[in-house]
Write a structure and sequence with these properties.
Blueprint: E1 2-8, E2 11-16, E3 26-36, H1 38-45, E4 60-68, E5 79-82, E6 85-86, H2 92-95, E7 106-107, E8 119-123, E9 127-129, H3 135-139, H4 141-154, E10 161-165, H5 169-180, E11 184-189, H6 192-202, E12 206-209, H7 215-222, E13 230-233, H8 238-243, E14 253-256, H9 268-273, E15 277-280, H10 286-297, E16 307-312, H11 316-319, E17 332-336
Parallel strand pairs: 10-11, 10-13, 11-12, 13-14, 14-15, 16-17
Antiparallel strand pairs: 1-2, 3-4, 3-8, 3-17, 4-5, 5-9, 6-7
The structure holds zinc ion (ZN) (2 copies).
GO molecular function, one term: oxidoreductase activity
Domain Alcohol dehydrogenase-like C-terminal: 169-297
Protein name: Alcohol dehydrogenase catalytic domain-containing protein
Length: 338
């Protein structure tokens, strides 16, 4: 079978490997769709922290079961996605039912080889089935689950203002699940095209361009002087993250979904007087995946609209680098295998 390996930053190579053999507790899946996300792009660029090469990327997958033990509850032909975070089951986080932040987590396509190949072997306990969903939709569950998890961390309440900073695919998912939770979404980015997308496709009422507008003034106008009680970063940009401490209402929660390598910096009196809560949000749990799949099945979200670029698996090597350039307007690139 054909496998795409990221040999080192900036270098992909197709190699031929044997198809995996069915092991106990696993299923063999035929990969049908691979969503490309920031992690894949950063891994290719060489800017992803703690990343090791060579590595097979790809963790946002829509697959068909081809071989499986029938006692697993799956049969060949089932359409599945995978929860790509493999937890140790023993550490303090796992014992407290927080496998998403397992101390020894192995993310498929990040810490271990992932899905940029024709067939994969995956533990059946990582599979989620939805025969009524398309392979595109199945591949979009994981990035949405990241957003759904962030909203669950923030415990968004009906009617509160939720400022979402960063309108990439993760930010878009955060906006959708903030809306579903009853929040009033304010979208912020520095890219007009992305903000227009939020208005036109996600019906986000309030948008702010941080590059051209007075952010504090606009937030005050939108919230009647209160400021947002939930702020969520989906930029992973140090400057944006540090600036956003001042966007919080008194008593607000600030959730970091995006990640960057530097330090956080906030004036302690500003943080303290708000009695603010700062949280990180890592990966997602099966509960988030289930919530996302239900919302997709009920048509509360239609993330297929995020797909701006499609490419055949055999063309990924040639196309991948172009997806990094913001000028190409990529929101979501989707790889297709037949
Ligand atoms: Zn991803
Ligand atoms: Zn663990």
């Amino acid at each position: 079978m054909n496998v795409l390996i990221c040999q080192q930053p900036g270098q992909f190579e197709y190699v031929q490997q044997n198809k995996p053999v069915l092991q106990r507790g696993h299923a063999i899946l035929q990969v049908k769709r691979i969503g490309i996300c920031g992690t894949d792009l950063h891994a290719f660029e060489g800017t992803q922290p703690y990343f090791q090469y060579p590595r097979v990327l790809g963790h946002e997958l829509g697959c068909e079961v081809v071989e499986v033990d029938p006692s697993s509850g799956f049969v060949p032909g089932d359409k599945v996605t995978i929860v790509p975070y493999f937890a140790c089951g023993e550490c303090v986080a796992c014992r407290n039912e927080l496998p998403n932040c397992c101390a020894a987590i192995q993310v498929f396509g990040v810490h271990i080889d992932g899905g940029m190949k024709e067939f994969i072997s995956v533990p059946t306990k990582a599979l989620l089935k939805a025969n009524d969903m398309s392979f595109d939709e199945l591949a979009l569950v994981e990035p949405l689950a990241i957003g759904a998890h962030g909203i669950r961390r923030a415990a968004v309440q009906q009617g509160e203002f939720v400022l979402v900073i960063g309108a990439g695919p993760i930010g878009l998912g955060i906006m959708e699940f903030a809306r579903i939770a009853g929040g009033k979404v304010i979208a912020m980015d520095v890219n007009t095209t992305r903000l227009d997308f939020c208005k036109d496709k996600l019906a986000v009422k309030h948008t702010i361009n941080a590059a051209t507008e007075d952010v504090l003034q606009r937030l005050k106008e939108i919230t009647n002087g209160d400021m947002p009680t939930v702020v969520i970063d989906a930029t992973g940009n140090q400057k944006a993250i540090n600036a956003a401490f001042l966007y919080m209402a008194h008593g607000a929660r600030y959730v970091l979904v995006g990640l960057q390598k530097g330090n956080l910096e906030v004036a302690h009196p500003e943080f303290h007087k708000r009695e603010a809560t700062l949280m990180s949000s890592r990966n997602a749990t099966q509960e988030d995946f289930d919530h996302v799949m239900r919302c997709m099945q009920q048509k509360l979200v239609d993330p297929a609209t995020y797909i701006t670029h499609r490419v055949a698996f055999t063309d990924v090597k040639a196309q991948f680098e172009s997806w990094i350039n913001p000028a190409n307007g990529v929101i979501k690139a989707m790889v297709e295998l037949s």
